[in-house]
């Protein structure tokens, strides 16, 4: 099941998934941000965070974003990525867990190094404050 979910995730990032995140996320999905302590719960807020993250890490990176490793096991995937933002190197992992219906129920993002985290935090903060 996780193989299909991750294939759809990659299609979403490429702008090729009909319906976008709506069909990919469970209604009660939980998002764990690398810069917000409290887990974000629900499809609407998770969609906001993932769209802002995609705009920041993929859209603003000028084609530099790429997944470098992918490990799939059971209901969980770990996807390592790298990119650059505002001249800062960003390395991170997406940890994605799905349910039996093929929907993402948990999405956790971890980032490094500190200057990369700060660049992502600043850019995403502006996007989220602006409502998208």
Structure description:
- The chain has a single domain (2-129), classed as Roll (Nuclear Transport Factor 2, Chain: A), CATH 3.10.450.
- The chain is 34% helix and 36% strand.
- It has helices spanning 2-13, 43-59, 114-129; strands at 25-32, 40-41, 66-73, 76-85, 88-98, 104-112.
- Helix 2 packs across helix 3.
- The mean pLDDT is 90.
Class of secondary structure makeup: alpha+beta
- Under CATH, the topology can be stated as Nuclear Transport Factor 2, Chain: A
Q: What is the CATH architecture descriptor?
A: Roll
Roughly how much helix do the residues carry, as a percent range? 25-40%
Termini separation: 30 Å
Query: How much of the sequence is in beta strands?
Result: 35-45%
Secondary-structure element order, N to C: HEEHEEEEH
Unreliable stretches? none
CATH classification class: Alpha Beta
Shape: globular
- Note the total helix count: 3
Radius of gyration: 14 Å
Largest sheet: 6 strands, mixed
In total, the number of domains comes to: 1
Write down how many β-strands occur, each being a DSSP E stretch of 2 or more residues. Answer: 6
Strand order of the largest sheet: 2-1-6-5-4-3
């Amino acid at each position: 099941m996780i193989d299909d979910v991750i294939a759809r995730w990659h299609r979403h990032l490429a702008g090729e998934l009909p319906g976008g995140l709506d069909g990919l996320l469970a209604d009660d999905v939980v998002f764990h941000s690398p810069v917000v302590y409290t887990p974000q719960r629900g499809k609407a807020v998770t969609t906001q965070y993932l769209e802002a993250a995609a705009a920041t890490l993929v859209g603003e990176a000028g084609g530099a974003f790429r997944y470098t490793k992918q490990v799939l096991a059971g209901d969980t995937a770990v996807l390592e990525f790298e990119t650059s933002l505002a001249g800062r190197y960003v390395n991170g992992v997406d940890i994605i867990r799905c349910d039996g219906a093929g929907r993402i129920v948990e999405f956790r993002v971890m980032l490094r190094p500190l200057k990369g985290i700060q660049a992502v935090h600043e850019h995403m903060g502006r996007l989220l404050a602006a409502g998208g």
